[in-house]
Structures are given as C-alpha cells and as structure tokens.
Fold each of these.
Amino acid sequence: MAQDSVCLSDVKAAYERIRDRVNRTPCLLCERLSTELDCELYFKAENLQHIGAFKARGALNAVLQLSEEQASRGVVTHSSGNHAAALARAAKIRGIPAHIVMPHNSAKTKVEAVRSIGFEPQFCETDTPSREAAAARVQEETGASLVHPFDDPRIIAGQGTVALEVLEQVPELEQVIAPVGGGGLMSGTLVTLSEARPEIEVYGAEPAWADDAYRSLKSGKIEPPERYDTVADGLRTSLGNLTFPIIQSKLREMLLVAEEQILLAQRKIVETAKLVVEPSAAVPLGALIGHPGRFRGRRVVVILSGGNLDFGSCQLGK
Amino acid sequence: MAQDSVCLSDVKAAYERIRDRVNRTPCLLCERLSTELDCELYFKAENLQHIGAFKARGALNAVLQLSEEQASRGVVTHSSGNHAAALARAAKIRGIPAHIVMPHNSAKTKVEAVRSIGFEPQFCETDTPSREAAAARVQEETGASLVHPFDDPRIIAGQGTVALEVLEQVPELEQVIAPVGGGGLMSGTLVTLSEARPEIEVYGAEPAWADDAYRSLKSGKIEPPERYDTVADGLRTSLGNLTFPIIQSKLREMLLVAEEQILLAQRKIVETAKLVVEPSAAVPLGALIGHPGRFRGRRVVVILSGGNLDFGSCQLGK
C-alpha cells in the first residue's frame, strides 16, 4: 500500500466511529515538571484510556468497519501486549467472537485483562513463527479476520485520533513526542498533524536498546531489532510496511533513550503527575530529559501511551 | 456562621474565579471495576489536580478574594498536608508572600512540594497548640491572612467546584461518594448537589479508625477523633463549625471503612484505573466495596481526592 493510504479524513472518520466508546483522555499541564525542565509540558494521558492504552482506539476502529458477514466470523490476533485486550474489548462491543492467541509467557496482567473482558486466550509458543502459525490455524478453522496490531490502515487511523484530541486540547501547540514501537501510534500522529498543523514538530522516541526505527531511517529500509531486553517491552517491535514510509516521510527526528533514563522518567510521571505508566510510555519524557535543548521554552505534548504494569512486586508508599 | 453561609451561587462564582488556573480533571468510566462491582462506576480524578489534590481549588478561591491591601501582607497557614502546597501555589499565582508552617515530622514529599513552588516552610512542633502558636506568631509579625484548610466559606465554595464539573461530565448521575476529613470537600459537594440536583444521593466515607464524623452525626455535636493511626492520613481531622452543620443537614449517610479495605481499594485504583492515589482518596471506593447493596446497578461517581504519596519505598512493577 502506498504511504498516503491513510489521511486526515480517515482519522476524522475513525473518530466519529469510535468516540462514543473511547475515553477523551485528559491532556494535563504539569506545572512542576514544566518548571524543572524549562518548557510548558503537557501529558496526553492515554494510560487512562479503556484497557489502559491507546490501542483501544485502533482496534475498535478496525472492528467497527468489518462487514456483517466478516464480523459474524469474528476476529483473531496474536499479541502478548495491549492489542490483545484492545481487540477483545472491540469484539465484545460489537458482540462478535475474538480469538486471542498469546505466547504462554505473556505477563499475567495482560492475560487477566483479556479474561476480564470475557474471552479465554489461546496459548502458543513464544517465537514469531509459532505465534503466526497459531493465528493462521485459527483463521483457517473459523474464517475470523486477522487484525494486525499496527500495520493496518484502520489501526493507524484509529491511533491518529489521539492527536486529533490533542489539537483541540492544547492551543498553539508547538511540539509532540510519541513513542515508536511498531509505529501505529506514531504514523497516526504524523498523518493527523502533518495535514492539520504542519508547523508542529513531531519527535519519535525509542529505547537505545531498541533503536530499530532510528537505524531504519538511516538505512532507508526496515531494520529488525538487534536485542529484545529493553525495559520498555512495548517498543521491541520493528516497523511495518505501512508505518515505515509514513514515518520516513514525515517525522522530524528519532531520539534514543537510555534504560536508566526511561526508569527515571517513569518515576517522575508517577510521583509528579500521579499517573501510572508502563516503561514504554515513559520513553518520550526520557527523550525530553535527554535532549533539553530541542524543547526549552516550547509548548510540548508528551503522549503517555499506556499504564499496564505487572504489579506483582509493587509496593506503593504511604 | 449559619449553615447556609455557602450556597450554589458561591460555588459558581468560585468556579468563574479559578477555572483558568485549575485543571478540569477527568471523570472516567472504569469498565473493569464497573463489571466487577456491578454498578456504573466513574472516578473523578482530583489526584490529577495541580499539587495533586482538590485542595488547589479552595485555596485559590480564598486567595483571589483577598483585598489588595490584605494580599500585600500575604497568607499564612499551618498544615502537614496538601493544603500547604495548595496555599503556596495560590499565593504564587497572585504574587504575594506565603508563610507555610509545617510540623517538623511532615512527609518529605509534602515539604518538597511547597519548596518546588518557591516557598521555604517554617517548621514547628507537631502538637496542635504549637502549630497554632507558630501560625499566630507569623500572623502577628507580618499581618498575613490566615487561611484555614477547610472551615472557611471560600474554601468550601472552592471545593464545591469539583461537584460542579461532575454534573457536567456525567449525565443522569445517581450517587456520589466522597471522603470526609475536616469536611471541606464534602460540604462543598453537598452545597452544590443539594441545590442543583437534590435527587442525587451523597454518601460520605471515612476510616473506621477515624470515625469522628460518623459519631458526630450520631451525637449531634462535633466529636474529636479517638485515634490517629489510620493509613488515610488526610482524614484524621475532626469536622469544623462551618462544615459540620452542612454535613448534618444534607448528607445521606456516613459509611465506615476498615483499614485493609482502604488498601485493597487503593490497589484496585492503581492497577485498574492507572491513577496514583493516596490512601485517603481510596476510602470512598472502600466504602462502595464494603456496602455493595447501596450501589448495585446505579451510576455512581467516586471522588478521588488526591495522589500525594511518600514514594520513598515505592517499587513499581515492570
């Protein structure tokens, strides 16, 4: 598909489709971190979205566009992360079957999230071929539609609605920083802002230990990750055939973030903004902290992508 | 002062005064806990208010009403809690001096909050006479205006703006649960709702270990706390001369919450709603969990009062 396969009108149509069933998440000025970091800093709190992540938007936009005949056969995906719960929720809203294939080592909290919506996941081995084979088998048996977590124009348009809300919430916005994993959120953000307000500078952020997007932009082709051990588990994926060209043509700059900076940023968000965020969601603030010169004195929105932590070992203070 | 000294028009006037400088915090439907608790549950997230608590509203409303002459001499309060930072922030916005007297054993995070706004607290002994004497001394020396944390009509009117927003955010609301410490938030909530929408049932929640409001309603006079060791440190205060009669005449019922239920509720909010809340803010959800019959099948808003935790020992999961 060509890089212009998703445009602002698709994002606006997605918003009309989903807005009654997604939270209009707040975009909150953080006075304390603004002072500390010498900029005007807003957090777009998609951790407060249903299922705890922006993924609820794209999945719902995809499921609501299935024909009656497609819908009756259900949807299928393989995911160890937030897309699993997002697709389950979308299927439940439409009242159709959802086949959620999860690697057997998925975080307990993500498995419970799918179950709490009312679907029992199917478990498979952890390697990509096994996951794809398991999903393909379900597809063959049931005729269910596969909904990819990011490389799908309906998903990209749905994720673009985050930026649509930001434009309404923050007047005279100058800069946006969003995390880059598979690139669904980032390409939706770019599609929206490049058409609606091209003067806004959009920065991508990813862990230095998952710098595949950074390298892909350098080499001009999709590069695979070289390691899979960043704490930001949502950003370990490589870009897709649809998301890469959008990012390549529209992104201002990719910023890399060290592991310790991710954890520092996470702590600052929890302590100061009172928002529970997963490490992946803290990467953009880590980028701001690591590259202060680009953001000094500017009005900047940091997109907090999600808040799904494994709380097994969590000890809150008093 | 008579119990009708604060009315809905005061709350509306307060809102016009402060709305440009407070967050319109979100009121978020929590689908997962709604299913689990068999009601339609919304969280009014005042933990996302500036300084991390609803107290920012009342303090700003009070400070903005000082005459020029009063304002020039500054404000003073004694507080170990969120009112300290709230008054400091309000003074900074108006550009006047703030004298914040804090017991020397105040939580480090609360002291740092005042400092981060630009004021150095003055420390005193922890007993009430010492605190009052220290504040009185400052008042005498400087001519600063004392701003009480809750027993002040300007404070009550300011806290009432939380309910004003809730009315706009949740159509056909049936029930509200709010915590009761000194009663500022509760009496503001009652003033607003009893006049604007008297059919809405308002419940108060307090720890069983800080049941002074419950006992006060029984005896018909303000009862002091009998112990000071509840984990909900913001609710250890007794009611005031202004807040008690409002609560006495307008509240539907006080519900008591056991300590373990407070901590369970806190964990549910953090894990499910992705909001950082202090134990005091979790008491209303604890009340809902402990008295499910009153709320089954109803549309209920739980006010989350604040998110200021001492994170010294905090370990977030991955």
Note: Chain A touches chain B through 43 residues (CB under 8 Å).
Amino acid sequence: MPADAPALKIANTRTEGAEVVLYDRAGGQSREALGAALVEERGLTLIRPYDEPQVIAGQGTCGLEIAEEARMLGIETAEVLVPCGGGGLSAGIALALQAEAPGVRVRTVEPRDFDDTARSLAAGRRLGNASQAGGLCDAILTPMPGEITFPILARLCGPGLAVGDTDVLRAMAEAYQRLKLVAEPGGAVALAAALFHGSEIAGETVICVISGGNVDAATFGLALKTLG
Amino acid sequence: MPADAPALKIANTRTEGAEVVLYDRAGGQSREALGAALVEERGLTLIRPYDEPQVIAGQGTCGLEIAEEARMLGIETAEVLVPCGGGGLSAGIALALQAEAPGVRVRTVEPRDFDDTARSLAAGRRLGNASQAGGLCDAILTPMPGEITFPILARLCGPGLAVGDTDVLRAMAEAYQRLKLVAEPGGAVALAAALFHGSEIAGETVICVISGGNVDAATFGLALKTLG
C-alpha cells in the first residue's frame, strides 16, 4: 500500500491478518517493481489490483446487481457513475451491463487533478497523471488506466467525469446525513458527480456506485464540517 | 418530536415535507396530551410511534428478514439484540421470529439510565424511568414500555440488557470503522451490548439490529474520538 494510505485502511488490513508492505508513492517508488521483487524473492503469486481478469470479473458482479435492480425498477436507459482509479471496477461493471442491461452506460468519475481516465478516453489512448500522490482521494490515484482495463473502458463507457475536492467532501456529508453510509473520498466521487455535475450527465436516470469506506476520522471530520 | 432531538433529525424530517411540532420532554410536557389536542383541533388521525398494531407489524418485517437470513445460514438458535425504546421494534421482531424462527429469541437493549423495559421485564409489570430526558440515546428514551408492546415482550423476550454511554460511543465508532455505517447512539445500543456485554448473552450466535442514523456531527465526533 502507499505509505500515505489512510492509517485506518492500513490498520484494518493488518487486523484481517495481512502483512502490509508500504511504498513511497509520492517519492516515485514503483509499486509494480516492488511487487515483482517480492514475487521473485518469496515465490509468490502476484494479483494486480485492477489489471487482472478475475479481479475485473469479480468487481463486475456489482454490474450484475445494477442490471437486476434496474430490471426490477423497469429502467432500460440510464447512466451509471462509477469511482475510477485503475479502471477495474468500471470495466467490470461495463462488461456486466453490456451483457445484461445494454441501455445502461458507465461513466467513470475521478478526482479533478487525477483524471487520467477521462483524458485517456478523450484522446483514445492511455495518458498518465502529472502527480502520483497528494489530493484527497488516495484510494483511486493510479498512474494511468490499465493495459487490460482501458480498451474495455474505451469500447463501452461514455466520457469521463472529474470532480473537485470540495464537492467530494460535500458528497461524503450527504452520504452521512441521508444514506447513513461512511464513504471514503475516492468512494464518494461518483456521488459528487451525481449531486453537483448534473449538467454533464445525459438522461433522466442516474445510478451511482459508492465504493470504499476507509477514511480516517480527521478527514471524515472535514466532510462533516461542510454541513455547517 | 422532543425539542432536544438531534437538529439533523428535525431538519431531515422537515426536508421530507413534514410539519414538525416540538415539545419539552425535559420539562415534563406530555407528548400524548399534545398529540390528543392536535387530533381534536385539526381532525387528524393519531399514529402512535410504538403502541400501534400496524406500526409493530411493519417493524416486524425486520424479524422476517432475520428469520430468512438465519435459515439461509443454517442458524436455528440465536439471540437477537434489538435497540428498545417503547418496544415496537422489539415486539414486532419477536412476533415475526415466534412464527418463523422460534429458536431465535429477542433481547431488548436500552441505555443504562433509561432501562424501563429491562426492569419491567424483571418485575413482570410496567415500570417507568426516573428521568424523561437527557443522556446520549435520545431516540429511544420513552417514559415506560407500551401498553400493547409490553405484554408481547414479556411473553417472548429474554432478560433486557442495558449499556453505558461510553460503550455506545465505542460501538458507533466500530460501526463507522468496520461496517461503514452511520449509527445514532440509540441505534447502536444493541451493537454495544454485542461487543461489550458478551457475558450476559447466551449461546454462540448473536444477531444484532442497528437502527437509526440521525446523529449530529458533534455527537458523531465524540464517537470517532474513542478511536484514539
């Protein structure tokens, strides 16, 4: 994990029994190189967080649930806003919807200064971010869209959306106040787009994925402060 | 609503379109007398919050869900911890479980200084609380068990449990940290009993109801502080 991941996320993962190896994202240390060295040294199997067909398929079960609920509600056409880092969740959902609810289209949502997917979708090729760290939405900061995920996104998704940190904090507060859910900043970007970027979304029906609740109390407090 | 209800709860209710009439619980103003006067004056139909068969039946659908999930998991014997104010939720769940999962027993959980149900269950008759207001768990502070609910609880439930405010705050923090749920203090009492009163609970399997997330940011902040 990046050394600047939330302390809560690192602690929760250790509580589950994992050995957490930290790396310096801000200083440019490569997670890929570190992973490769650990695999070599200990004879491990590497499971990538997004560029991995079975991870994408697993995250796609969220798309199966969306398709089932949309069918139950009689929804045939909609946009699904999905928090996007490396693109595994977005790609998995897009594949599931292609098969089960072809009128429902994925829109990726990213933090404004880490919108590599939105820019890559617009350019038709994979582009990176200027920064590798910093910003509020640590969990979905990735260097660029994945090798496996990007072609899926390019084929199936609409234009990418990007949201600012203030809107993310306000969305976290709305999730707290109305939905009674704890969302981490990166997990709330799609909700922020749904609430505050309506003019960029097509159609009447918006479906929104909230994913991830590993947020330190101090950051959560910043979100609650937006309630005034 | 009591004038000392969370500002968030009052605001959320008004947002839903309701007219909220406040009363002074701490000063001993009677909600029942106020309700009766409004009914008379405006020709309204009174729906009591717990001493109302259809409210109890509606809350009992939570018991149907518990029975269904227990069956799916192969659970035949368990204790279900339920936050208890006037006893509507507890009574509804107890009735549903009597019909659908008779080996699963309800245990009411209350704040320590407002444990009228636990004392009433022990005494075999309805007893009141010394105080009518104050304390952390505003939503489940009621003067005494209901006329309709208490006989159901007395027939179907095990001994009542009571928890202290510190344990409630710690349970809210656990819900935040592990379950990613926003629980109000009164909604977290059963989780507090499950986490910190294990010695008072029989058997291996504990089912816990978390109900209600209307909590002001300041109170939520108190809970997060227990994470240290």
Note: Residues 53-225 of chain B form a domain with the Rossmann fold fold (CATH 3.40.50.1100).
Amino acid sequence: MIVRALLLFSALALTLSCVTARAVEPLPSWNDTSPRKTIIAFVEKVTKEGSPDFVPAPERIATFDNDGTLWVEQPMYFQALFIFDRIKALAPQHPEWESKEPFASVLKGDVNAALAGGEKALLEMAMATHADMTTAEFDDIVRNWIATARHPKTGRLYTEMVYQPMLELLAYLRASGFKTFIVSGGGIEFMRPWTERVYGIPPEQVVGSSIKTKYEVRGGRPALVRLPELNFIDDGGGKPIGIQAHIGRRPLIAVGNSDGDFEMLEWTVSGGGSRLALIVHHTDGTREFQYDRESHVGRLDKALDVAERRGWIIVDMKRDWRRIYPSEPDGK
Amino acid sequence: MIVRALLLFSALALTLSCVTARAVEPLPSWNDTSPRKTIIAFVEKVTKEGSPDFVPAPERIATFDNDGTLWVEQPMYFQALFIFDRIKALAPQHPEWESKEPFASVLKGDVNAALAGGEKALLEMAMATHADMTTAEFDDIVRNWIATARHPKTGRLYTEMVYQPMLELLAYLRASGFKTFIVSGGGIEFMRPWTERVYGIPPEQVVGSSIKTKYEVRGGRPALVRLPELNFIDDGGGKPIGIQAHIGRRPLIAVGNSDGDFEMLEWTVSGGGSRLALIVHHTDGTREFQYDRESHVGRLDKALDVAERRGWIIVDMKRDWRRIYPSEPDGK
C-alpha cells in the first residue's frame, strides 16, 4: 500500500511538473514583436496533431549556425582567436616561426598583418595548430582553452558570450519535440567539447568543417590522428551538403546570420510544406556589435536582399531581443 | 475535481505501464547462453545509478554493422544485388553496355564474370547506378526497390531478412537509454530510406560509405546532385573515423560480424571503463548461412583469432539464437 501510494504520489508530481512547465511562456528574452510571434505560431502549427501542417516528431529538425547566431563572432571568429593563442603557446617548440609569416606577425601581436595573407595564411595557421595530434589530445586542448580564455573586449569567457534568446529558442524547440543541430563553418571538433554543456547539443548533433583523420594503433593503443589536410568546409553550399551527410533530412527550421548561411536557408524553405528560415541581424552596437553588408566577419548582404521576398524572417537584435547574454539582467 | 481525478488516473496508468514494460524479459529470441547473460549484465551495470560502471545516458552509444550483423549478406551484399537490378533497369538508356564489361556480363546474368573485374569493376557499376541524379531521386529509387525486390534464395523482401534477435537487442538498448547507430560499409543513402521503419534507427544515426555531392540550384529549385566520385569508405579503419566524424563519442557497445568491423571493435573496447564488443558468427547453415574465414562476403578471420584474448563476445547464431527472422515461429 505504501508502495502504491508512493507511485501515485510520484506520478502525480510528474504530471503536475509537466503542467507547470507548459504554463511558462516560451522565449521570455524575446520582445513580443513579429519574430517571436512567427516562431511560436510556426511551432504550434507543426506540432499540433490533426493540423494540416503537422509534422511527426522524428522529422522535426532544426539547424543553427554557430558564429554570430548562437554566440558572438566579433571582433573575429573565436576559433581564429583560439588559433592565435595556440600559436603563442606552441612558439617555443617552433623557433622558426619567429621569422616566418604569418606566424611571426601573430607572435608580435599584429593579427591584422597575419591575416593579410588571406585564406592561405589562415589555413596554414589552422593546420599548424589543429593537426598532428590525436582527436583526444585536441579535445583536451579545446576544453582547457574554452575554460580559461577570455574575450578581448568584454573579458568574459567565450561560453558566456552566447545569446540568451537563442538558448531559449533551442530549449523551446526541444521541448516541442525538435532535434536541434549546429551546422557551422567552424571546426566540428572545436565545438563538440562544449556544445552539450553550453547549448544542450550533443556531439552527434554538431556539423562543422573538418580535417582528415587517420586510424592508427600506436604501441597497442588505437588513436585517431588529425592530419593537416582539409576534409570538408561546412559553409555556403557546403551547409546543405553537411546537413544531408550528417542528418539525412531537410530541416524544418534553419537559423543563420550571414551569407554563409544563404544556401542552408534556401535549402530549408524549398523543402515543401511549412518551413521557417530565420536571420539574426546584428543591429545593436551598444549591447553587442553592429554590422552587416560591409563586415569581414559574418557578412550579411545577399541574404538581407532576398529575405523579405523569400519570406525569411529577420531577427533585429536591437528591436527583438529584450536581453542579449545570460548574465545580463532581464529587460532593457 | 474530475480533472484532477483524470490526471491522477492517467498518471497512474502511465506508471503502471512502465512497470509492466520492465517486467517483460529482454531478448526473448536469444537462448539463455553466455552472450545473452553478458549483454544483460553489461547493460544493467552501466545503467545502474551509483554503480562504479554507471554511464550517463547521453554517453550510451551503441554502433551496429549492417550487412551480416543486422540483416543477411549472402549470397552477396544486398547493395550489390541492387546495383545489378539497376543496371538491368537502366540498360535501355545505355545501349553501349551490351558490349562493355562489367555491364555486359550483368545483362547476360553472369554476375560472377562481372565481379571478376574486382574492386574497379564494382566501383564502376556503383557509380553508374548511384550518381548523376539528385539525392531525392536516389531516395525514391531505393524506396521502390526495397519495397519490391526479393532475395534470390528465399524469395522474401530484403527487409524481412533482418535478424529478430538483433531487433530485440536494438530495442532493449534503446529502452535502456542507449542511442543506436548503424556503422556500415554500405552506402549511407542506400540505408537511410528504410532503417527507421525496419530498425527504428533514424537517418541521422546512420553512418556509411558515401560519394560526393554538389549543391546546385536548377531552374530556381535547389538540389543536391550525387557525383560519380568516392567521398568516404566506412569500412575497416574507416569505421572509427566515421564514428568520430558522425558521432564524436566512442561507443560503449559495438556489434559486427566480419574483419571489416575489426577496428570498430578495437576502438570501442580501448575506450576505457566498461565496454562491450560482440561478433555475430554465422554458424547456422540450415536456418541461415554458414561461413567465416574463407568467405568472400563478410570474411571473419582475423577478428575470430583475437576475439577470446581481447574479451570480444562471439555470438554463435546456431547455439545462441532461438529464432533468426521475425517471420519465423519462436523456438527451434
């Protein structure tokens, strides 16, 4: 009898907690402007059984860009800052870097000179810091960096510079039966060590750029060795390719913030039925950073031109977000 | 009051149904021999909170080979049979195939002659039948074939030639908080159209071999076009690479049946903590097919040699499985 009473009690508690959870308004850090209303209306219609727009839970896929969509990307992509920090850390083992560009400029603290070498220079620095170690070793390096490195402007940990409204959107979608994925131009193994803790997105739901790896048994211990050779660039037209390769279904919702997300948004909304494309527009120079068409990082130009015509929703950070970071007090 | 009573009632019903579900014995089509006992003891210890072997649910990853592990692979890989059927279907559009090997032999019904060209011939046939169409078109072709094509020996649909004990193992693991993945040398897009229906494994949990794709907007409609170029071979040392690329975590359990699974099993058990590696040994020539060291398809030689020493569990189909196919009556 006691067992039965306990069962009843715990079952009741469960039921009540579900009821309570549902009563909370979704997306509290969003102002009740058009994007919030559109998102909620969309989620309600695709999750309502019997609705003509109903989509079964396994097909509810939502893909999110990372840089500039889930976390800040200014003054430059955080992975570039990671590369510079790694070059400094590795310099003692590479005396030749003191006189070899682009490394020499990084070591002198002149990042702009280092980046003047364009894509080739960036790739060279990426390979020098991301390859020739095992996947486990790289995972450790990223974990240590992300736990201690701080943003040059705010002095905050990078994982504190994520967007509170986006954390709420991820949680709201998951509570509505969606599976949330990251689809980012950033390195897949640069994101996985912390996306589960910060975004609730497990490693198997992270899609990103990658280098090749090799399976090797070293002294009886198997390892995956990271090779200095590009495998896949998950940007632009690469995003639909990465989505197909990893997920194998077209998203219902895609969220991005730059022209690198153009093809992901286009691919998503052309899937037939109800689909939603969102673009985060960085309009708030006071609370965050203000940039779009002319920015070298996260340029938003072509996608901004077609958004209205194609029915893609522009999220105006200044107008639509009540709060930017988790650490901020609620309200403007 | 009525509402509250209803809530209580439905909550109680839920609780009781959970209790009932747990009371059912797992793995009913397995004889109660050593493999079944080992699997159950393993699952109980890694899922028991407070146990020194406890593993949190998000880290409970199980990977399964497909050919010869989840479904039959004799008299040859079913995807090869698909290729031959496609060559016959496409022949009218390729009059040149009548005199061009390996196609000419396939059209004459002499599959062995076609395969005499080795890997090069197989690759040529694969590309001729898998590429130069969109991903959506290929998906349709696979769906139609898998719904109608029949096994040359049994006359059954291929999806009926899956192993009942493995369906039960997949379900048991999922009920124990595991996420189940396929990690197969077969084509990823050849499996995805039916793995959810047949195995309960959604497209995003299928890892396999692939060809390259290209994003293209054709007449205003975006498409992913399949290119006649290999992208990745998910076999041998490719399996740990594919696991890392798609899942980003090491499995707790890996199940295979051939030397192509060797590295996946090795990678899995070397992950530290409690891990389980299983090898399906095809020992039942009456109910299924009997083969191992000398077989051209699904050769099991090197893995058989080391299994005992490394603690990999051999599942002897004849001894350990009470039932092979879902359609069979229970019991021998």
Note: Chain B touches chain A at residues 7-8, 10-12, 14-15, 58, 61, 135, 179, 188-189, 192, 196, 202-206, 210, 213-215, 217, 221-222, 224, 237-238, 240-241, 244-249, 263, 266-267, 270 (CB under 8 Å).
Amino acid sequence: MAQVRVVLCRPSHPGNIGSAARAMKSMGFTDLRLVAPEKFPAKEAEWMATNAGDVLERTTIHATLEEAIADCTAAYALSARPREWSPQVLDVRTAALDAAKQPGPVAFVFGNEQSGLTNEEVMACQFLVHIPASADFSSLNLSHAVQVVAYELLMAGHPQVPKGLEQKLATSADREGLYAHLNEAAIRSGFLVPETGSKLPERLRRLFSRVPLLEREEVNILRGLLKALLK
Amino acid sequence: MAQVRVVLCRPSHPGNIGSAARAMKSMGFTDLRLVAPEKFPAKEAEWMATNAGDVLERTTIHATLEEAIADCTAAYALSARPREWSPQVLDVRTAALDAAKQPGPVAFVFGNEQSGLTNEEVMACQFLVHIPASADFSSLNLSHAVQVVAYELLMAGHPQVPKGLEQKLATSADREGLYAHLNEAAIRSGFLVPETGSKLPERLRRLFSRVPLLEREEVNILRGLLKALLK
C-alpha cells in the first residue's frame, strides 16, 4: 500500500477537520494536510476528532495545494460535479485500487465544503475522482467523503509494489516543471498564443497525467528535448 | 434493489441523526427509523441534515427494535466488535451484495454511539455486519458508519462501470507518425545523435505507449507543437 496523504483545501469548519482525522484514523491513515484552513488549530477540531488527536497534532498547514502535494507521485482530486476540462475521471473504488498500486506517496485532495475544488486545484492532480451517489442529492459532508475514500483505500488492500521504483517516480513538482516547460515551448514557438483561452495547457496536462508511473528520468528526457528545440 | 431501512437504536446525539439522514439521502435512501432516541425531533438534527430534511420529516419512532424491523425480511446488525454468540458474520461489502438480492425490505441496524447494540438487539437480526477498519482504532462515528453502509448498498445495487469513452483513438499509424516526428525533432535539434546507440527513441516510445486510450487529437497536438518548434 502506498503512503496516503489526505489534503483538505480551504476547509471552513474546524469540526470537519476533526471528523476527517477520525475517519482517516479509523481506516489506518494518519497523514493529514491542510491548505489555507479558515481556522486551525481549533477546539471544535479536537472535539470531533475524539481519539484521533494524534492525527491532528501531526497535521501540517500549507499555503498552496502545490506545496501540500509536492512530494506525491499521484494526486486524486475529489469532485461531485463533472468538469469540462479535467484529468482522467475515476470512481472512488477504481481510484483506490489504482492508488494502492502506486509505489510512491499518493494524495487524495478534497475541496471546500461549499465550493469544492477550484479548476486550478483539479488540474494540479492527475485524476478526478467521484463518489457514486444519488442523482437527486449527491452532496456528501466533507468528512463523510473522507470516510468513504479511506474505507475504499483500506479495502484496496496491501498489494506488493516493485522495490526501488518509488525513488524513480516523478513527483508533482517534477510534473509541474514539465508543464511549465511545455507551455514555454508552445508560446516561444508560436504554437500557443497566450490569453486567447486556448485549452492547450490543459490538454497537455491531461495527456501526461494519464501516463501510469511516470518516471523522473522520462520527464527529464522530454525537458531535454524541449531545451534542445528551443535553442 | 431491495427497499432499505436504516434503524438507529437509542441514539444519544440528535446531530448524528441528522448526519445519518444526509448520509442516507446522498446514496438514495430515505427510510430512517429510530428506536427510543434520547432527543428527537431536535434542532441539531435539522442543522446536520442540511438538505435531507425530508428524510427527517418521514422518520418514524419506535419503542423497540422488534417493532422497527417487523416488516423486514432480513435485518443486518452493525457491530465493531465480535460477539461470542451472533448470527452469521459478514463484512459490509458482502452484506450489501446480499441485501441487494433480498426480495423484501431489509434493515441495517446501528447501535448507540457509546455502547453499540445489545446482544438481544444483535440476536433480533439475521446477520452481524462489520466495517473493515484499523486494528488500532476501529471506532467510526455513527453517521460515518451509516455513510459507508449506504455507499456499499448503492454500489451493490448499481455497479459502476467506467464511463463509456467515445473518443477517436489514435491508431498504430498515428502513433508511428508521432514517433517519427519526435525522432526528427530530436535529431534536428541535436538532442539525439544518430547511430550512437542511444536508447532515446525506445524511451519515448515506451513513455507514449503507456498512455491509455491515447487520442488522435492528442497526437496531433504534440505534432503541432513539434512542427512549430522545428520552424
């Protein structure tokens, strides 16, 4: 089983942070990361965490999602609604099975209680994950969504991962470097005219986020080629 | 799918009743029954239910579990701990699949937040159901347990199939065109010196062959970028 991080982006209610910590711990996960929480630490979080106070004590706070997932080799964005432009879409069971096969750390990323994730946050991840739900009322409470994800991750089990592959995998930071380089190449070659609403950056991101177990060396090869072409 | 009733025995916190109602509704279930609740109706229940107020309005109150499940042909008792004497033990996924096959109404029965179900309540059911959880800390919040059960019931009734992908996939010829173009770009930019035994062409081929369901349009985007860069 890959190491699992749960990332909550801009949570409004500290009680939900505590409930999420408890939900995680009940399934054996303890690495909780918060991006710009409205209020944390907070008494309400401690109350709702019950015996998962140790998870809250180790919870880290980050300014941006990019920072929170920088060390992850795969990031899964939860969303109740489809997006016009998004990474590959998986249901939560498939996503958990996929995550269980990842040799490096993975992040499951949840949005704000009211507004969810921004499109930028979704595009920083490689997968868009939905929890199958009623068509009439698909709104799960934040910590309940964390519970279902953590449960499916536990159910997905503990498969063996090829040893030594973890060090070789591209991290989110490596991927962002590639996307920035592709963008630069597209603009400097005239293939992309900035500020025309082109979906080229999203299309490229979507393409490379589908490569399973993308390696750092592969990112470096592509960037080397781009560098040579730009000379 | 059988009709599903959720039965909460002696719940202490009305907030949990509201959260359970929301959890049920998010998965398409609306029949909530309470056995001797400490406090209901209650404002806290309404707050936590958010848009599942209609479930609360229809919630029925019963003096005993026997009364609450009298019309059910199968009853599943949730328990975090094993019992010396119990009905057949199932994990929640198996229980949901079993329930989905029942022709009559089924009940999923949850105990009090602190003490769980009594042995008598367990023995009034035909199955004992456990939610797989961490060995160190297996205590789910009541409404979170309802969420996992409701989620598994939805999954059992409507197995999710990966969304039909109606895309124009790249053919082998499209892929070969891309590889040839990449090679040309690598040679003309000086990144690849021919006949030096470089593994670059194989590396690039290996990378792009791992993209599942590569689309023709994506190949065209990459080739458009290469063409612009080579100008």
Note: Chain A touches chain B through 59 residues (CB under 8 Å).
